[in-house]
Amino acid sequence: MSLPPLKRQKLDKPVDESSASEEDAEEADFSASDSESDSDDHIQDLQPQKSRQTKKRKIRATVPSAFGATLQSLLNTDAPSALPLSLKPSVTRKRNDEKLELRAKKVLQVERKEKEDKGRITDVIGGWGGESERALRKVAQRGVVKLFNVIQQSQASASAAVEETKAARGSGKPSLPAPVIPDAKTKKGKKDNVLGRGREVGVEKDEFFDMIRDLNRLIMDYLVIEGYKSAAEEFCQEAHLTPPVDFDSIESRMNIRDALQRGDVEDAIARVNDLNPEILDTNPQLYFHLQQQKLIEFIRHGRIAEALQFAQDELAPRGEESPEFLSELERTMALLAFDSSPVAPTGIAELLSPAQRMKTAGEVNAAILDSLSQGKEVKLVQLLKLMHWGETMLEERAEFPRVTL
């Protein structure tokens, strides 16, 4: 029994003409052998055969010398800079990011330049700048100066006109007559009674001596508080006054004041403690001002390291307790920034002036007087302040001649 002819399977790759002729010959042989018996060998022969091109080639081993030569030639080849030889894709991404960033920077520069040029005035006048520009500036400056002078002159003339008008019509306030000094020969022992509307009353002998004693006490009060020991002793003997205080305390106060005025704060603190240790213990503000003056003296003499250490150890803890102390400490430490510069603010530069030493000495003197149950301020100064206040209040209601000292 003969088998029907089998269809040949199509190969993936095209075959050449020699293989096609061989297939035709095999089909002819197969048709001629219809009468042959069906056997396993014959079936095996009828299976499709692979073409020669589909056979795998045998891979031969590369000679080491040839491999080395090939590798060396690849290494010696100059690779283009635009194409880096790298197997990592991150290198390419990084390079692309750098290119994008560079391009973005260029775009931003162009936009910035366009914005700057947008508000810039172009030179529409030929030859603008140089001598012509300087000449125009000089003309403008002269014009401004002349205008300022005219305005100032007009303001001065207007003020003068107002003063003349005011003087011509008066202030509208009642005028008080000037005080008349009585004749010493005809009106001896009498005084003008202002409260009695000009009526004169006699001054008795006892009243006159009381007035003299009051004046002497005012003078003695001034000498004691201001610390003029020798003058106070002599005046006390001449005026036959009882010493109001121990004159030795005056000398102690003056020694403390002299120590502060020459910048020896440590000696002043020691003398205050010898006189009365409770003065600084009960007055923290005075003690802080003494420590502040000590810090100022450190800065004045250029002892910066000691000043910083002293401020950190002594003044900083007290600054945390009081905002007022902290503000004074900050103002004092600002001296380190200006270093005695002439451009320093007035509130800072005045710390290095002699007036600051006198101010601290005055505070210490007032504290000592308070501890001795004495007045802190001179009574004569208080009377002068009261007189000035009275004249100011009276000037609002009437015109009168002021007392000049």
Automatic annotation (TrEMBL):
Region Disordered, annotated ranges: 1-61, 167-191
Domain CTLH: 249-306
Compositional bias of kind Acidic residues: 19-39
Pfam families: CTLH (PF10607), LisH (PF08513), Rrp15p (PF07890)
GO biological process, one term: rRNA processing
Cross-referenced InterPro entries: CRA_dom, CTLH/CRA, CTLH_C, LisH, Rrp15, Ubq-SigPath_Reg
Protein name: CTLH/CRA C-terminal to lish motif domain-containing protein
Organism: Favolaschia claudopus
Lineage: Eukaryota, Fungi, Dikarya, Basidiomycota, Agaricomycotina
